[in-house]
Write a structure and sequence with these properties.
alpha+beta; 7-stranded antiparallel β-sheet; globular; disordered N terminus
Length: 493
């Protein structure tokens, strides 16, 4: 009797598998069915691979006594200290005050003072390539790398990107050095165990443990990047640029920021995923001075709760297309305004920042498969990502000299620049893309993404207009900018 019962169960199992087998060759499927599948993936209810199924809770108390020491011995030599020094000119608090200057004159010039900062870094190549956070070395005149064994080396910057908050350094020595391997950060799951290695508060190399608390975090406010790994591993000041490693001793992220009201760790830390780190390091290896993001030619907004309800979604996720640039890659690939992007190359798109991350790690010239819901139908679009700038319109100007804009870089706004800086695609004119720390532009309050509207009454339509206005040197400056939709005016005499 038991034998027949087992036979019946086998028949039912085979029948269930047959029902679950997808129909091959179908180009489209109902949107509700695909949404249900994507939501299952987000909630973690989808089937897992064999490697993912090997993740287990320690089965017994002796298993809890296992040590992370072998992982630390493997990865710790690749984690270094980064010492950055910069010269800063201090200004008198009375400088520019007409009352003070009338009676006491302009006073002595500001003093030069040396400032130093401490952070962490990770050796990702045996030749001595180190990756750290951009804010650790930003504006530095001299950068030193101290290894875990105490050796120190000077280094130089190969590439830095303020938007992602990453910098790639090269140790001025042939090596070889102990390097750490990358992990595929897209395979991380909430609950995975991680170790954070860095130099918090300058006390020396320190290791903390924790788990992945969340993935694809955005809106953190530390940079324009919006796809962080959140962890409860203790991360404190000085950990910036340090390594977040998995249980195979491989790099899954670069520790970047903490959420804190006291300045110490509250168990909420954020790291840049290793796949983004790999893309930035590869650009530096190829001789690029900037990390180039591909051009897709479309603008996106997140799905709100009201939108999700109207679309019949159980939860809000994805990116809604709000504008498509004519003859851009998205337009050529068949994307339309109103489409809902839910995945790229099979990876779920939680929000527009996640889509930007997926595009950036794919790279220029890559053909990506975007899954979109258009008019209750799921479509797959093949889009070839374009160059981030138009060679026919180089309009970039790095401003120097004695003027309020010195130390900034301005460029002509075209659809590519507008997309990279997350500006409305219809905006034209001149936008600030870089501002050096301590420069006149920085002191007078200019920021990246500021749009120059007027200088001394003249409308700025392109970067060459800015060059002409600066060349006149009128003795006083009156300029107007647009920042986040607000017009700001400043007068400098």
């Amino acid at each position: 009797m038991r034998r027949y019962r087992w036979a019946g169960l086998v028949v039912l199992a085979i029948a269930a598998i047959g029902i679950m087998l997808p129909v091959t060759g179908a180009q489209e499927q109902p949107a509700t069915e695909r949404l249900r599948g994507v939501i299952s993936e987000i909630l973690g209810n989808a089937d897992k691979s064999a490697a993912e199924q090997r993740r287990v809770v320690p089965p017994s108390r002796p298993a809890l006594q296992y040590s992370y020491a072998p992982l630390v011995k493997l990865a710790a030599p690749a984690v270094v200290n980064v010492y950055a020094e910069r010269m800063v000119r201090t200004r008198s608090p009375f400088a520019g005050d007409p009352f003070f200057e009338r009676f006491f004159g302009q006073g002595p010039p500001g003093r030069s003072q040396r400032q130093s900062s401490l952070g962490s870094g990770v050796i990702v190549d045996a030749s001595g390539i180190v990756v750290t956070n951009n804010h650790v070395i930003d504006g530095a005149d001299e950068i030193k790398i101290a290894l875990a064994d105490g050796r120190e080396y000077p280094s130089r910057v190969l590439l830095k990107d303020q938007r992602v908050d990453l910098a790639v350094l090269k140790i001025d020595d042939s090596g070889p050095f102990t390097a750490i391997d990358y992990s595929d950060s897209d395979r991380l799951q909430v609950g995975d165990v991680l170790l954070a290695i860095g130099n918090p508060f300058g006390v020396g190399q320190t290791v903390t443990s924790g788990i992945v608390s969340a993935l694809a975090r955005n809106g953190i406010g530390v940079s324009d990047f919006g796809f962080f790994i959140q962890t409860d591993a203790a991360i404190n000041p000085g950990n910036s640029g340090g390594a977040l490693i998995d249980m195979n001793g491989r790099l899954v992220g670069i520790n970047t920021a903490i959420f804190s009201r006291s300045g110490g760790s509250n168990g909420i830390g954020f790291a840049i995923p290793a796949n983004m780190v790999r893309a930035v390091v590869d650009a530096a290896r190829n001789g690029e001075e900037k990390f180039l993001r591909p051009f897709i030619g479309a603008s996106f907004v997140p799905v709100t709760a009201d939108m999700a309800e109207a679309l019949g979604m159980e939860r809000a996720f994805g990116a809604i297309v709000t504008a498509v640039v004519e003859d851009g890659p998205a337009h050529k690939g068949g994307m339309k305004v109103g489409d809902l992007v839910i995945s790229l190359d099979g990876l779920t798109v939680q929000h527009p920042d996640a889509l930007g991350y997926r595009l950036a790690t794919a790279g220029v010239g890559k053909i990506v498969k975007l899954e979109v819901i258009s008019r209750s139908t799921v479509r797959t679009l093949s889009i070839e990502l374009g160059e981030p700038s138009d060679p026919q319109r180089p309009g970039e100007l790095r401003i120097t000299g004695e003027n309020p804009f010195a130390g900034s870089v301005v460029v002509d706004i075209d659809p590519r620049i507008a997309e990279q800086l997350r500006l409305p695609p219809s905006i034209r004119g001149v936008v600030v893309t870089e501002v050096e720390r301590g420069s006149p532009a920085n002191r007078y309050g200019l920021r990246p993404r500021d749009i120059l509207v007027e200088i001394n009454g003249e409308t700025m339509r392109q970067a060459s207009d800015v060059a002409e206005a600066i060349a006149q040197d009128p003795g006083y400056w009156q300029f107007e900018i647009t920042r986040n939709g607000r017009r700001l005016r400043q007068v400098i005499r």
